[in-house]
Design brief:
Elements (H helix, E strand, L loop, with lengths): L6 E4 L8 H11 L5 H8 L15 H13 L3 E5 L4 H16 L3 E5 L12 H9 L2 E7 L6 H9 L3 E5 L13 E3 L14 H13 L7 H10 L6 H15 L4 H10 L7 H18 L3 H8 L3 H35 L8 E6 L6 H12 L3 E7 L4 E7 L6 H7 L6 E4 L3 E7 L2 H16 L8 E4 L1 E2 L7 H7 L14 E13 L5 E8 L2 E7 L15 E12 L2 E12 L4 E4 L6 H5 L7 E5 L12 E2 L11 E4 L6 H11 L3 E4 L5 H6 L3 H14 L1 E3 H12 L3 H13 L3 E4 L2 E4 L12 H16 L4 H23 L3
Parallel strand pairs: 1-12, 2-3, 2-4, 4-5, 5-6, 7-8, 13-14, 16-18, 19-23, 20-21, 20-22, 22-23
Antiparallel strand pairs: 8-9, 9-11, 10-11, 14-15, 14-17, 15-16, 17-18, 24-26, 25-26
Helix pairs in contact: 1-17, 4-7, 4-8, 4-12, 5-6, 7-8, 8-9, 8-11, 10-13, 11-13, 12-13, 13-14, 19-25
Keywords: Exonuclease, Hydrolase, Nuclease
GO molecular function: 5'-3' exonuclease activity; nucleic acid binding
InterPro entries: DDH_dom, DHH_sf, DHHA1_dom, RecJ, RecJ_C, RecJ_OB, SSDNA_exonuclease_RecJ
Length: 766
């Protein structure tokens, strides 16, 4: 058996559904019930966007900005260092420049200043002669900083989308969907809010900024529904044909050449724009988006791409160190993982936390310790059932700074409070979460047969794109046989399968699932969930299944027969609930020590049973299976290949008896070699026959001389105990060692299932 790593939640399932009906079902599950709503979803229109004037304080902000432009006041755009922040910054900068404003931008350094507006930055902005600050994608929690701004005579306009912590700062204007009662759509990205301000200021719909809006919206993981869906869809179309030099260069280094998809943004453009702010200052990302020079665009894109490669290497190192901390003290991380270490780059800790979340399926806080300052800073990611923002606010007194969303947060705390926060969050999780909550939940949209999977079906489903938060790519369930399998990737960490069912095939890939290679046998049907894609290779297009999770509900037979180094192969596969068993030859070693089958107790259920040698009788193996009823069986024994060749047939018994009878006296020293040359037998076959004859008293032996016993009573060969043992051993090897996998599996499972049936009858008193 192979347990799934996630909880599969099944919606209404059907064996065969026409693609058009499947799409309607998926829309129903997204809460779209009326034909009008479904039409709007499938055919988004810019006409369905809300008017910016519905945002609270936007008119007040417009008047102040226009006055600043008229009086040549200097305006500072204060942004954030992530993709949403840099696209927002570039968008408002271009808007102000188009209006003729004297403006510049300021993005804090993550390492020296931290997140958001800070008093020192405000002082510098004031000293440089700026009188108006417009924040983008930040500012809603910067109370202290804006008190400083007010004291210095600076006006502040906040545009943000992050969670509001009770009240809002006392500033000139706050443009935020969640504090705007008349604005129906509450979950715009920071760049979406900036776009609304731009549209209001310019007096027309600024289509030229939709490429920036798509990147910030998709990369910031806001729900891709309502206005976000419209902006992302038209923004990706703009990205495909963009004339923005920086994005053309960034697409080139990202390997994006054709129609831009949400995956291109989420895994190509977004991470690269994020990377510069994670490792240093985010200014190169903004400059890339603003440049009008081809050479500068190419140089900045190359620089950003190199920075992203450095970021990937740093993430890999920190993730490995963080996992080691968890493994060294698992008792500290039972419900919530809190890992901290000096020297970790705080800019990538959100990514590291996400990796640990996927691996351990529990909330994660990942912190870097700054010993000189006496503080720890970092990021957190969470499972669906644990609201980070809510529970972080429950223990707000332990943080110097805290903010974020339900599943992602950032924080600063004293080093002394690390253990306090760990204990507090673990206690909250223990009291509020059930065991099943720690498994990621995946909603399965439909059950498919392989014969349904044609390219047109996948293209029809892509009408639901762009996919993302609140509009996930449909997840499908398949049941098939992994007829071909191989590990791929430089470190063989990925798994490629050819699934087969009823003569239909489908290629499938499971990223990060290379370790499951040995758990799958072509004759063992697997269940898997995943998403459909169209794979294009060498001008050929085919449907491909991207596996997200796998399970095998039937008992698994793992065939290591005849492998000398089975211990090395098996070591990583076993859980704590396993037992290594021998019949005759014990195994004693650093990896495994076996126990005799006779020492096992009745009804001692074992999840994983490892058998290291062959029994003398087949019934002994059957008894072992019935005694332990294992979920998985690992067959790791070897056989003597000479044994079967040594077993004589009845005709061979008859021939040698006649030969000895003819000779009257059989001298083994000379006659054995003659028989070997004449019959081509091996010596052990001759010895076997003569020993059976001796046991049945057909012959008498005096040293090396064998003579026929003329007075013997006739009896069958099966009367010989040695002959019976020989046949039993042959039966054992024929079934357990030399039979094919399918035949062996059928027999093994039949022994357990017959016992299970007997037990069930006993339970019910039948």
């Amino acid at each position: 058996m192979l347990e799934s790593k996630k909880n599969w939640l099944f919606n209404k399932m059907s064996e065969e559904v026409a693609p058009a009906q499947m799409i309607m079902d998926l829309l129903d599950r997204r809460g779209l019930s009326s034909d009008k709503e479904k039409e709007a979803f499938l055919k988004p229109s810019l006409m369905d966007l809300l008017e910016p004037s519905l945002l609270q304080d936007i008119d007040k902000a417009q008047l102040r900005i226009e006055r600043a432009i008229e009086t040549d006041e200097k305006i500072m755009v204060f942004g954030d260092y992530d993709s949403d922040g840099v696209t927002s910054t570039a968008l408002i900068m271009e808007t102000l420049l188009e209006l003729g404003a004297a403006c510049d931008y300021y993005i804090p350094n993550r390492f020296s200043e931290g997140y958001g507006p800070n008093p020192q930055a405000i002082e510098k902005i004031a000293a440089d002669g700026f009188s108006l600050i417009i924040t983008v994608d930040t500012g809603i929690a910067a109370f202290e900083s804006f008190e400083k701004a007010k004291a210095l005579g600076l006006d502040v306009i906040i545009t943000d989308h992050h969670e509001v912590q009770g009240t809002v700062p006392d500033v000139l204007a706050v443009i935020h969907p969640k504090v705007s009662p008349n604005y129906a759509f509450k979950t715009l990205a920071g760049v979406g809010v900036a776009f609304k301000l731009s549209q209001h200021l310019l007096g027309y719909f600024p289509e030229q900024f939709l490429d920036l809006v798509a990147i910030g919206t998709i990369a910031d993981l806001v729900p891709l529904e309502g206005e976000n869906r419209i902006l992302a869809k038209f923004g990706m179309e703009m990205l495909t044909r963009t004339d923005r030099l920086g994005l053309i260069a960034l697409k080139e280094v990202s390997g994006i050449h054709d129609q831009v998809s949400e995956q291109d943004v989420g895994f190509g453009l977004g991470p690269r724009l994020n990377a510069v702010g994670r490792l240093g200052h985010a200014a190169p990302a903004v400059e890339l988006l603003l440049t009008h020079d081809v050479a500068e665009a190419k140089a900045l894109a190359e620089q950003i791409n190199q920075t992203n490669q450095e970021r990937q290497a740093i993430v890999k190192t920190i993730a490995s160190e963080a996992e080691a901390l968890v493994e060294q003290a698992p008792e500290l991380h039972q419900n919530v993982i809190v890992v901290a270490k000096a020297g970790w780059n705080e800019g990538v800790l959100g990514i590291v936390a996400s990796r640990l979340l996927r691996k351990y399926q529990r909330p994660v806080l990942c912190l870097t310790i700054k010993e000189a300052d006496g503080i720890a800073k970092g990021s957190a990611r969470s499972i669906d059932a644990f609201d980070l923002f809510k529970h972080g606010m429950d223990i707000r007194e332990y943080f110097i700074a805290f903010g974020g969303h339900a599943q992602a947060a950032g924080m600063t705390l004293t080093i002394e409070n690390i253990e306090t926060v760990r204990e507090a969050l673990n206690a909250i999780a223990e009291n509020s979460l059930a065991p099943g909550d720690y498994k990621e939940q995946v909603t399965v949209d439909a059950k498919l047969d392989l014969k349904q999977l044609v390219i047109q079906s996948v293209e029809d489903l892509n009408q639901l794109a762009p996919f993302g938060m609140a509009n996930p790519k449909p997840v499908f369930y398949l049941k098939a046989f992994p007829k071909e399998k191989r590990q791929i990737g430089a470190d063989k960490s990925h798994l490629k399968l050819q699934l087969e069912k009823d003569q239909h095939q489908l290629n499938a890939i499971g990223f990060g699932m290379g370790e499951l290679y040995a758990d799958m046998h072509p004759d063992a049907e697997i269940e898997c969930i995943g998403r459909l894609e169209i794979n294009e290779w060498n001008n050929a297009r085919s449907v491909q299944f991207m596996i997200e999770d796998v399970r095998i509900t039937e008992r698994q037979i793992h065939d290591f027969r005849g492998r000398k180094f089975w211990q090395k192969d098996l070591h990583a596969k076993l859980t704590e609930d396993y037992q290594v068993v021998h019949f005759n030859q014990p195994v004693i070693g650093p990896s495994f020590t076996s126990k005799s089958h006779q020492m096992l107790e009745e009804n001692q259920q074992i999840k994983q049973l490892v058998v290291v040698d062959l029994p003398d009788k087949l019934v002994d193996f059957s008894n072992l299976l019935q005694k332990t009823t294992p979920e998985d069986i690992y067959l790791c024994f070897q056989a003597n290949d000479d044994f079967l060749a040594a077993i004589p047939s009845r005709e061979e018994f008859k021939w040698l008896y006649g030969y000895i009878l003819k000779k009257e006296t059989y001298h083994r020293k000379t006659e054995d070699s003659l028989v070997i040359r004449h019959k081509g037998w091996k010596l052990n076959k001759i010895e076997c026959i003569i020993q059976v004859f001796s046991e049945l008293d057909f012959v008498r032996m005096n040293g090396d001389v064998v003579t026929v016993n003329a007075d013997v009573e006739k009896q069958p060969l099966t009367a010989s105990l040695r002959y019976q043992a020989m046949l039993e051993k042959k039966e054992v090897e024929d079934m357990l060692y030399y039979s094919n996998y399918h035949h062996l599996k059928t027999w093994l499972l039949s022994q357990i299932e017959s016992y299970d049936s007997i037990e069930e009858e006993n339970v019910y008193g039948l």
